[in-house]
Amino acid sequence: MTRTCPKCGSPNPPQAAFCHNCATALGPQQPNPVNGQQFVAAQPQTQKAMISMILAIAAFLCCGPFLGIPAAILGWLELTAIKEGRADAGGKTMATVGLWGGIAATVLHVVGYGVWVLLGMLSANPYGY
Fold first, then answer.
1. Which terminal Cβ of the chain has fewer Cβ within 10 Å, N or C?
2. Which residues have CB under 8 Å from 58's CB, separation 6+?
């Protein structure tokens, strides 16, 4: 049974809390006729997206891959949830910053570490004095 969006009229999966087309909250579902339980739509939350963005910013400042990789993973998971209608579309920008910022911070730090090691090897005195 699909859920129709009250704003744009597009069909959505039954478990969607937000419209896939326009991100309008779909509201609570009707009671389940099998066991009488009522499903409640998820409240708009952008906590995971915000954490992803904060981790990405911190990854640029320190700890590179140790914070960048979790930021990228969390941003990707949150963007997937937004795409499937399980999360509020308001966190899309923060999740995108977390995803790409985490990837960029990880790559920059790994390349920086590599250059640092390479320069250290080149500047070492091969004669030992």
1. C
2. 67
DSSP-derived letter for residue 86 is S
Query: Contact, 82 vs 91, CB < 8 A?
Result: yes
Q: How far apart are CA 84 and CA 79, in angstroms?
A: 9
As given in the structure block, the two tokens for residue 75 are: 């941003």
Q: Which residues of the chain have pLDDT under 70?
A: 29-45, 126-129
Q: What pLDDT, on the 0 to 100 scale, is given for residue 42? A: 46
Judge if pTM exceeds 0.70.
Answer: no
Token duo for residue 88: 């509020």
DSSP secondary structure, 6-46, as one string: TTT--EE-TT-SB-TTT--B--PPPPPTTT-----PPPP--
For the segment 7-35, what is each residue's pLDDT rounded down to a tens digit?
888 888 888 888 888 888 887 765 445 55
